[in-house]
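Record filed below.
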Amino acid sequence: MLNVVAIMGRLVADPELRTTPQGTSVTTFRIACDRNFVRQGEQRQADFLDVVAWRQQAEFVCRYFQKGSLIAISGSIQTRQYQDKNGNNRTAVEIVADNVNFAGSKSSNNGEGGGASYQAHSGQGYSSRGAAAQQPAPSFSSGSNEDFAVIDDNEDLPF
């Protein structure tokens, strides 16, 4: 089975860090994701999606993100059933975040942490990409053919 989600959107409200009775950090937050299409004569619609993050990842989100921050999330969809105040059975659909990244520049995140990310399963915790990752990728179209060595097909190759 495959259960993979990749979304990008803006936080609807500031995330709040909570702790379970066992001492595990958790946060739930909602993001607004614009739809890819717009009907003629209408405004672009958005979907509002609930996301849950656990442990150090929850602390990372609460520390570096606030309302309006652009966030990229990869994870999986999870459903759970519960009863509301009136005793009605309800189903909640949530995205469980495995990887959370900044999706905007430093200025769009109010100057906070432009290159950090947290991967839940990496075992590495917080990471910073540093200055090298913020430089533009090299353009291969600007190179010339002189940058490549010609290999003679008649000789034995060294591998």
